[in-house]
From TrEMBL:
Protein's GO biological process: DNA topological change; DNA-templated DNA replication
An example Gene Ontology CC term for this record: DNA topoisomerase type II (double strand cut, ATP-hydrolyzing) complex
Sequence motif GyrA-box, location on chain: 527-533
Identification of the protein by name: DNA gyrase subunit A
Species whose genome carries this gene: Sulfurimonas hongkongensis
Gene: gyrA
Cell location: Cytoplasm
Length: 829
């Protein structure tokens, strides 16, 4: 031991430094030699080696198939020193039409399925290259790329493929290296080639110019890309996130609807998705589904989701998008290798590097062809010269002792080169005929033209660009008919078009089943009090308009749900419809839970700190929060109020500094008015305080409002269409949490319940909606003013009232004729 320690050859090393260097070497080996694709041909080393081995086995598109095991054996034996399973898995993926936008391997046998089934063993399957793969290897034999030593130095392999197609973008790539990862989506080959042509024509083209040709990724499984912002981010910076949805359609079957899935997002396992949906239905996470089955066949995908009767397909579909892989997020990271270094590229950079690669390939191919043409021309020139002096040539050859002497004598006596002398000695006598001599002269003339053309390529950038463009056209002719598989739809969150939309007054309606629309206010004409009204919407038999309000297109809508969640949306992002249109399901515009219902929709133009949002619950709880806390809302909304388990939100109002009182009305006509300052402002995630105490256990808050002064008038409306307006001062001011006073005298004519209360404004009309979907517009000034403990006058006859709201007055116009009887005054004190 002492001898070993005293040995001068023993070196002291720093273990930390050694580990760092070793791990760095390993990391770079994985990054460059294993996990990441080259920006030029879009291939990882294993894919490149598989294609090269198949090329060496003459497995072109038109050849016979060979066993996959033979291909894998050649790959691991000569080029790829890793496991045969890893190589075969890579080969299998190259043959799957649901994994590759353009397959590189033409497989025969079981190569797996979109359900996650494994491929058959390599001894059972056969393979050859596809026609598209041939484009990646074209001109490989012409010294167009560098050939490097294989892992044991016994043979050579290409450093990169001389591809004629930008495979990195067409087929995409994914891989995890050490400390980095790549995830490049596939694209449509026609769009990519058109983008290359545009970039070649204008090297300074903008991203928007490129995107005129390259719309978005194009996945082999189709689907729908939802939103364009993530695409633009990825194309500009190399990083972005896009939402991909399954493509579905709705079928009507007897008295129920059926959701059919036609296409899935990229890399989603169909069998696992069906199992997930079934488990969600079993656990009651998704309601309304009676059966899920797979009817897919050789003609395409068809997953059927049968719904129960009276179930809205749009709500179920929206829940499926939220809770299953029917909607996925594809995180784009355009990371690839350039000059042995990993880098993130924008799409224009990728296209530029491919064009530069094509320039290098064409220049090297041209040099190869030029040298070959010059060598052949040199031989033909020697043959032509020899024929001209054939008698002297024959004499010298006959006088020579052997073939080698004949070559040397020709070189020394006639100044032929050694190559020319060798070809002359090997020349057959048949070449001395006149026809053969003419052929030599013609071939030589053609070669001289070819040499001149090849030299022009090397001298002129313009000629070089012309050849690149011609090759793009050739590839386009073959693959240009490949249609886009993935659709692209706008996401409302990605669009900012407010400046292009006129700021006009709108009526926004929402039905009991959750359909929302906006209609220009001008479509509703003013009628006399007591009129029958005009149809405001066409609804399902069991549906009716539940809420409506007026606002401008540039306003922001605050959606407050019964669960105390708050969402917001610009008015112009609500689909506009005709006066009788059903509208669009609000669940498609907001991220709502399955049984979550909107209770208040509040238009606002700003989120000032001088304003507050006041919440009123069914059990009489009141809460006040500064409006500025709701200026930035997440896509799934925020918690606005913490509710008791048996409570629900009824409504919410915006209050500014002019508001003095809060006014609460119950279903059984009880009401309370108290000072707003009795409610201090609280944060978002708080419960609130008691606002009113009920006299009857079955009573509950039906509506609430905010009051600026006692001169304001309050309009209270009952379920039978009876309404009255009363000065706010007639309602006694009490303490918060009391029982309050009577809001309206209830009789058989008024009905049992109150449906709402409004603040009367001279600049506003009232709109009442009936449960049948009719809307009537009334000047509130024409409704009789009554004291607090009265019933009022008829506003609507013939139908029960669903809700009431205010809307701006229209310019005076001739009132429509109606056949209503004179208004009856009821129970006036």
């Amino acid at each position: 031991m002492s001898d070993l320690l005293n040995n001068d050859e023993v070196q002291t090393i720093n273990i930390e430094e050694t580990l760092q260097n070793s791990y760095l070497d390993y990391s770079m080996s994985v990054i460059v030699g294993r996990a990441l694709p080259d920006v030029r041909d879009g291939l990882k080393p294993v894919h490149r080696r598989i294609l090269y081995a198949m090329d060496k086995l003459s497995l072109s598109h038109g050849s016979k198939f060979k066993k996959s095991a033979r291909i894998v054996g050649d790959v691991i034996g000569q080029y790829h020193p890793h496991g045969d399973t890893a190589v075969y898995d890579a080969l299998v993926r190259m043959a799957q039409d649901f994994s590759m936008r353009m397959q590189l391997v033409d497989g025969q046998g079981n190569f797996g399925s979109i359900d996650g089934d494994n491929a058959a063993a390599m001894r059972y399957t056969e393979a050859r290259m596809t026609k598209y793969a041939g484009e990646l290897l074209k001109d490989l034999e012409k010294n167009t790329v560098n050939m490097i030593d294989n892992y044991d130095g016994t043979t050579k392999e290409p450093d990169v493929m001389p591809t004629r197609v930008p495979n990195l973008l067409i087929n995409g790539s994914s891989g995890i290296a050490v400390g980095m990862a790549t995830n490049i989506p596939p694209h449509n080959p026609k769009e990519i080639l058109m983008g290359l042509k545009a970039l070649l024509a204008d090297p300074n083209i903008s991203l928007s110019g490129i995107m005129q040709h390259i719309k978005a990724p194009d996945f082999p499984t189709g689907g729908i890309i939802f939103g364009k912002k993530g695409i633009m981010d990825a194309y500009e910076t190399g990083r972005g996130r896009i939402k991909v949805r399954a493509k579905t359609h709705i079928e009507q079957k007897a008295k129920k609807e059926v959701i059919v899935i036609d296409e899935l997002p990229y890399q989603v396992n169909k069998a696992r998705l069906i199992e997930n949906i079934a488990n969600l239905v079993k656990d009651k996470m998704i309601d309304g589904v009676s059966e899920v089955r797979d009817e897919s066949d050789r003609d395409g995908m068809r997953v059927v989701i049968e719904l129960k009767r009276d179930t809205m397909s749009e709500i179920v579909l929206n829940n499926l998008f939220k809770q299953t892989s029917m909607q996925t997020t594809f995180g784009i990271i355009m990371l690839s290798i350039l000059n042995q270094e990993p880098r993130i590229f924008g799409i224009i950079d990728v296209l530029k590097h491919f064009i530069n690669h094509r320039k290098t390939v064409i220049i090297r191919r041209t040099i190869f062809d030029l040298e070959k043409a010059k060598a052949r021309a040199h031989i033909l020139e020697g043959l032509k010269k020899a024929i001209d002096i054939i008698d002297d040539v024959i004499r010298v050859i006959r006088a020579s002792g052997n073939e080698e002497d004949a070559k040397n004598n020709l070189v020394s006596e006639f100044e032929f080169s050694e190559i020319q002398a060798a070809s002359i000695v090997a020349m057959r006598l048949g070449r001395l005929t006149g026809l053969e001599i003419e052929k030599i002269e013609n071939e030589l003339a053609e070669l001289m033209k070819l040499i001149e053309y090849l030299e022009s390529i090397l001298k002129s950038e313009e000629v070089l660009h012309g050849i690149i463009g011609e090759e793009f056209d050739e590839v386009l002719e073959v693959y240009g008919s490949n249609k886009r598989k993935t659709e692209v739809e706008d996401d409302y969150d990605d669009i900012d078009i407010e400046d292009l939309i006129p700021n006009e007054p709108m009526v926004v309606t929402i039905t009991h089943r959750g359909y929302i629309k906006r209609v220009p206010l001008a479509q509703y004409e003013k009628q006399k009090r007591g009129g029958k009204g005009k149809t405001a919407i066409t609804t399902y038999e069991d549906d009716f308009i539940e809420r409506f309000f007026t606002c401008n297109t540039h306003d922001t809508l605050l959606f407050v749900t019964d669960r105390g969640q708050l969402h917001w949306l610009k008015v112009y992002k609500i689909p506009e419809g005709s006066r009788v249109a059903k509208g669009k399901a609000v669940v498609n515009l907001l991220n709502l839970m399955a049984d979550e219902r909107i209770r208040s929709i509040i238009p606002t133009t700003d989120f000032s700190e001088e304003k507050s949002l006041v919440f009123f619950t069914q059990k009489g709880v009141v809460k006040r929060t500064n409006l500025s806390e709701f200026s930035n809302i997440r896509s799934n909304g925020v918690r606005a109020i913490v509710l008791d388990e048996d409570d629900a939100l009824i409504t919410a109002k915006i209050a500014d500094q002019d508001i003095k009182y809060l006014f609460i009305v119950t279903k059984l006509a009880q009401c309370i008015k108290f000072d707003i300052e009795k409610i201090r402002e609280q944060g978002r995630s708080t419960r609130g305080v008691r606002g009113i105490k009920f006299k009857h256990e079955d009573d509950e808050v039906i509506d609430a409002n905010i009051i600026a002064n006692d001169e304001q008038e309050i309009l209270v409306v009952s379920e039978k269409g009876i309404g009255k307006r009363t000065s706010a001062g007639e309602y006694r001011l009490t303490n918060r949490g009391g029982s309050g006073v009577i809001a309206m005298k209830m009789t058989n004519k008024t009905g049992k319940y109150v449906v709402g209360c409004l603040m009367v404004d001279e600049t506003m009309d009232m709109m009442a909606l009936t449960v049948a979907g009719k809307m009537i517009r009334v000047d509130m000034q024409t409704i009789s003013k009554s004291s607090r403990n009265t019933s009022g006058v008829y506003i609507v006859k013939g139908d029960d009232v669903a809700s009431v709201s205010r809307c701006p007055k229209k310019p005076d116009e001739e009132d429509e004729e109606d056949d209503m009887t004179p208004i009856d005054i009821l129970d006036v004190e």
